[in-house]
Design goal:
The chain is mainly alpha-helical and 65 residues long. The protein is 42% helix and 0% strand. It contains 3 helices and no strands.
Amino acid sequence: MDRYGQILVDNYPTYILTGFPNEMDNENWNFSVISACTAIDTTILIDNFEDIFAGVLFHLELLEI
C-alpha cells in the first residue's frame, strides 16, 4: 500500500504449465483437466497452445551458413 492506503500490487498465484505435443497422448483430456482446475475455457487453452506451437518458416538464404 502507498501512504494513502491505495493498493499498489496484487499478488495473485501464477502458474506456468508447459505441454509438448509429442508428449500428450490425449490433448482433449489434458485440456479438460486444466480447464477444471483453472476455470479457463478449453477453447482458450487450445487456441493458446496452438499459437505457441505454430509452424515457423525460414527463408532459405537465412539458413545458409
